[in-house]
Specification:
Chain lengths: ~350, ~350
């Protein structure tokens, strides 16, 4: 089983890689090769030395010949330009999200057309495919039959890719699957250019002793999933057998991964409960209409019938999401949490371009 | 008002051109220039000599510089590879339908970005965007909020273009509108490579004294519109003012043009009623699974609320559709119709590659 993970050194790529190396099997076969493709490969990346891991650094579209130099069984396509980037630079988003995905699908198709295995292509789509069009407001509860009318370039690009994947699958070029990711919270590390980035920032920054800004009205309801649940969802959609039986993947529609629906106010209350008043006090509410327009257009409540049929379930509570973050990233927590005796980590300096 | 019609010498392009030259206005302004773009321009095309008409012959994508050499106010984009072509040659369909439409949108965007007028771009989409996915069967009545799950490459390409147009409109690059055409019947002239072509052929060929094959079970229900109603619909969507008032175009969703729903058996009965037993007897039923799979996946019943709000209505009856064809194309009718005294035209030889 030769597996490719695009965006393999991104936050989710690393979590997925760790999970695959821990399991050592996928779809019932041993993981023989795990090829991580990414434009940015950190200098210190211990996973790159793992005997099963191979790294291809560069622009995915330019490196497809290398990626498909040997037969690929599974591609998990995580690489993507994020929402705010695509909004500020339309052409960048079209190239990174639409053209690159199409080129990836064509490379996979060329492999099967040449008599090689038909690659299983798993696409990480997004809740951002949905949006509230004035003429087509979203229903109170969204499911896979709800018409996506994206209100962002990112959402449109994801939606178009979903349809390419459905069609390449219908024609037998690939075995494509689509998992629509909820907003993944709490993302570790530095802030990124996603419009939803603050949903991690308002938890992550205070826990590391840093101030954070909440750019939306705290009454806003959002659909979240922890990194653990998200990786679980991607793996489940990857492994699902096609069919119409229980636990099988029927048809070619995307699967909305399970969502925990909370208000931003509930998130901040949870932070206060877990980390205390002083930590929660590091968050300042300062609504930004540009962020509210994007994030506010996404649905918050989902009927997760399809995901549940695959055995997936949402996080139990936002508190469990925060506690999982603390458990998985102790190095990022520099405040002393009530009820714990472990010394906090050293305060983190903000990374990235700020 | 400088208007571009792509596919301007196709069957609908010619009807639209005639309508525009007869009206002489569009969107309340005089038609100053009508630029017809097409790969194929017939040798004898009197319209090409009309003082308001300009012809650009060639591949649309390669001729965009010429098309946008002077400011364009309205583009009606009819040019398209048809369904059966796209099914038999995937790359051709992607290039002709997706890449060309995107290039057209980018050319229109370049005009507005350079300070020129923001072109109104009217895209002729299709009922083929809908399809019956096993996991998402179509509801008995389809409307604009029904999730399109295309079951053909052609339908997927049309659906993707619809979403590009919605997004280019949201961003203010163009003023895009989408009219989803029903199967247009009766098309004059030679058969084309559309899977739905037989729906015209089973009327047109017998009326010209030629045999015809019906490749579907006559119980199949289909959604049709006459060329007259279709041109009327395209013009109405083109002219509609954006807004949420009565008769205005709200949001960025496509408009399903009104449909007349009939069974193929009812179509054949109408032919018998209009033209007599001998003419109806020229049709042989011989189901072809490939055609049934494509045409049978399209919905047949529509709730045409949006179209009616724009003042559009379906054809009164299939008989009115057939009689309009006879009226508009007397040269193509070579059988004597009961109740008429006019001599029939000379029998037509089949054109095209057959």
């Amino acid at each position: 089983m030769r597996i490719v993970v695009t965006g393999g050194f991104g936050f989710l790529g690393r979590k997925l890689t760790d999970a695959l190396l821990a399991r050592r099997t996928l779809c019932g076969a041993p993981v023989e090769r795990l090829l991580l493709v990414d434009r940015y490969v950190p200098a210190a990346a211990p996973v790159a030395d793992h005997p099963l891991v191979e790294v291809v650094q560069g622009d995915l579209r330019e490196r497809l010949d290398d990626v498909f130099a040997r037969p690929v069984d599974v591609v998990v396509h995580l690489a993507s330009a994020v929402s705010a980037e695509c909004e500020s630079d339309f052409d960048l988003g079209m190239a990174a999200n639409l053209d690159t995905t199409r080129a990836l699908l064509d490379a996979a198709r060329a492999q099967s057309a040449a008599g090689g295995p038909t690659p299983r292509v798993v696409f990480s789509s997004s809740v951002a495919v949905y949006g509230s069009d004035p003429a087509a407001p979203l229903p109170p509860v969204v499911d896979e039959w709800t018409l996506p009318a994206p209100q962002s370039s990112y959402g449109m690009q994801k939606r178009v890719c979903e349809q390419l994947i459905a069609e390449y699958t219908r024609r037998g070029f690939v075995d494509g699957r689509v998992a629509r990711l909820m907003t993944v919270v709490v993302r570790p590390g530095a802030p990124n250019a996603a419009a939803s980035g603050f949903l991690s920032g308002i938890i992550r920054e205070p826990l590391s002793g840093l101030p954070a800004t909440c750019p939306v009205d705290p009454g806003l309801r959002v659909a979240l999933a922890s990194p653990r649940r998200t990786v679980e969802g991607i793996l489940r959609v990857t492994e699902a057998v096609r069919g119409s039986g229980p636990g099988e993947l029927e048809g070619r529609l995307p699967v909305n991964l399970p969502a925990l629906t909370v208000t931003v106010a509930e998130m901040l209350d949870t932070l206060r409960r877990v980390a205390g008043d002083a930590v929660a006090g590091l968050v300042t509410v300062a609504p930004d209409p540009a962020v509210e327009a994007i994030v506010g257009s996404w649905p918050a409540s989902f009927a997760d019938t399809c995901a549940r049929a695959l055995g997936l379930r949402p996080d139990d509570s936002f508190e469990s999401v925060v506690r999982a973050y603390v458990e998985d990233h102790p190095e990022a927590v520099s405040v002393r949490l009530p009820g714990t005796s472990a010394p906090p980590a050293a305060p983190r300096r903000p990374e990235g371009a700020g």
